[in-house]
Amino acid sequence: MNRFFIDPGNIVGTKASLYSEDVKHIAAVLRLKAGDQVTLCDGRGNDYTAEITSISKAEVSFNILSAYCSTAEPKCSITLFQGLPKAGKLETIIQKCVELGISDIVPVVMDRSVVRISKSDFNKKSERYQRVSMEAAKQSRRGIIPAVGQLISSKEISAEGFDALILAYELEREKSIKAVLSSIDASAKRIGVIVGPEGGISDDEAEYFSSIGAIPFSLGRRILRTETAGPAITAIILYHMEGEA
Question: Residue 92 above 90 pLDDT?
Fold first, then answer.
């Protein structure tokens, strides 16, 4: 069944409406018509089976037949604090992490970030990054559209609100990611993950992250690229916590 994200404000009782480019896709590309059924998702973890009642140039109207919780969302929420990478890599990281089940991504300018950009200039790109997240969420049939946060500094990262905050650290020699995840309560609902940029984590940042309770871990004998680390860690956490690959 075809699936579309819908603004929750466009659902009123048992009636719903889609606008903009979704209208063209439904009418001209999919050639759906009144009486056909689709799945609507409000981006908050709720899915709806809906029947098309009418199609105009500007709007597709629906009658909602049933509502239920999306089965695509993991029980464990993961926030990725991603060290700002070189141009183009952030979009890849967002796309792959969203497909795998990340809850949100926060770009972080770190001491060794190659790219130097002001927060205001970076945040002008927020709409594009959020679009990448939305398209990946559509493709992977997510129940939410993970948020891509505004740019912060490494010293603005906090462990507050997380059951565990863990750090991918290339200089860690004792604790593997398996060992660290095994030490986290199986009922943990929110995990924060810190991944550095191409140059890695500076000594000053490592000290700060330790002071706020971040647990460092190693990904093994091979050093992963920053655009590989986030998706790999996301998959490992979800597999460990919920048996999801």
Answer: yes
